[in-house]
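pls design
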């Protein structure tokens, strides 16, 4: 028991914005959004996506920040504070912390791959190699369980090193260092892309509005992504909100974070697809894009040695600011609810997440024949459960709670007092009727799609 340490607080507004944007900006911005935008009608999809951010992403982000800032507690403690010790709503808090735990366990395995690729880029491993050889390198890593466990360990250790420093001296300080570097790296890659031969084609791919490619499925895709991309439903934004003072401008902060997240996804798309098109390759998504296509592209263009280093540093930093937020959401629970000190809480969780992540690192090698859900390997199974089921369920619970069960209208109004009154009315209407309906539809579609 150690309750003598004062609870963490952000020292500056920009520090909080950068930390929350750090959580939001992750692999989703780089390997998912640009591709789905290009495939689903470019500019037409971007418009739909902005609409989904407005009706799903922002209302939930505002709700999570409100819960955190009002209660000044972790995600479980927040519901205890609001509804009492016996309230079933505490399960919603628990559920979101559990989601953070599960996601951290395998997100850091993928993040570990990015470390490996920073290392390979530094060594010039892609220079002068054939496309087949470069694709083989990724296959080699995926087949090498030991190597992946080491990288996974290294990434958890990096996150631990930051989170153990606390809210101000750890997370805020490192967000203020890592995020500007991330912006700088992205800007360099973007300029390089816009000067390359594929610039026009990438602008066309990402922005030319083709409404014929916009289907109901693309709308669902946009809604699901608006949710994942802002790191909602994972106790993160509640926890980060709890380190704000009560009078903060919650709506303003949410808008800034969503804007940064969207801008970075768009710029990353242009930076990546311009060089992909410049060498005549096809756009792609996911690990294939990042670990196969991109290194092949950089093996073919001038300055590729340096560009590869910049690119893999960029995604490693994007992943790191996300893993620290996942870790903090759980650490806050142990500190606030269980009275642990930060050192013990962070170390224990890091070790647990490392151990639970090991089967994910071994999914495509030693455990290759283990398929817990359908024909999916362990890694894909756990990702499916967490991102397709747990996140929408958690988001649905948050919006229903804040819209219908958080009865104290005065408290809610007070949390948005920095904005004009119509903002509150609009937000409240959304979170009651529109947002839960939209998330329920996403959840239904995901369940159907997974075929379970
Ligand atoms: N928001 C991150 C992205 O867009 C993903 C993420 C999910 C980060 C969960 C942290 C926690 O890539
Ligand atoms: Na994101």
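designed seq:
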């Amino acid at each position: 028991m150690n309750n003598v340490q004062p609870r963490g607080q952000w020292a500056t507004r920009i520090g909080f914005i950068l930390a929350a944007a750090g959580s939001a900006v992750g692999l989703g911005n780089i390997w998912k959004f640009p591709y789905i935008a290009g495939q689903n009608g470019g500019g037409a999809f971007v418009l739909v996506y902005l609409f989904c951010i407005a009706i799903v992403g922002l209302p939930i982000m505002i709700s999570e920040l409100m819960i955190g800032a009002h209660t000044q507690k972790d995600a479980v403690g927040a519901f205890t504070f609001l509804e009492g010790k016996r309230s079933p709503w505490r399960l919603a808090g628990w559920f979101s912390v559990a989601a953070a735990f599960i996601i951290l366990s395998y997100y850091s395995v993928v993040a570990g791959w990015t470390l490996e690729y920073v290392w390979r880029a530094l060594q010039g491993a892609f220079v002068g190699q054939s496309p087949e050889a470069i694709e083989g390198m990724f296959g080699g890593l995926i087949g090498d369980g030991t190597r992946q466990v080491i990288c996974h360990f290294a990434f958890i250790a990096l996150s631990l090193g930051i989170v153990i420093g606390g809210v101000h001296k750890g997370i805020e300080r490192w967000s203020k260092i890592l995020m500007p570097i991330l912006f700088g790296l992205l800007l360099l890659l973007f300029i390089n892309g816009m000067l390359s031969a594929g610039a026009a084609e990438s602008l066309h791919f990402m922005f030319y509005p083709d409404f014929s490619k916009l289907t109901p499925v693309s709308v669902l895709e946009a809604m699901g992504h608006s949710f994942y991309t802002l790191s909602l439903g994972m106790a993160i934004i509640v926890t980060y909100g709890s380190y704000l003072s009560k009078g903060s401008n919650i709506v303003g902060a949410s808008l800034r974070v969503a804007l940064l997240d969207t801008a970075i996804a768009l710029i990353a798309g242009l930076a990546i697809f311009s060089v992909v098109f410049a060498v005549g390759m096809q756009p792609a998504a996911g690990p294939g894009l990042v670990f196969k296509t991109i290194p092949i592209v950089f093996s073919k263009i001038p300055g590729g040695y340096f560009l590869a280093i910049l690119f893999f540093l960029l995604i490693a930093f994007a992943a790191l600011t996300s893993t620290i937020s996942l870790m903090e959401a759980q650490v806050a629970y142990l500190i606030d609810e269980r009275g642990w000190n930060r050192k013990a809480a962070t170390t224990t969780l890091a070790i647990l997440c490392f151990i639970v992540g090991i089967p994910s690192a071994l999914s495509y090698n030693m455990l290759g024949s283990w398929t817990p859900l359908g024909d999916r390997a362990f890694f894909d199974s756990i990702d499916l459960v967490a991102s397709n089921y747990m996140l929408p369920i958690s988001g649905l619970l948050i919006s229903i709670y804040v819209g219908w069960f958080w009865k104290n209208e005065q408290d809610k109004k007070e949390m948005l007092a920095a904005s004009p009154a119509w903002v509150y009315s609009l937000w409240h209407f959304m979170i009651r009727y529109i947002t839960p309906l939209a998330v329920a539809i996403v959840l239904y579609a995901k369940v159907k799609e997974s075929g379970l």
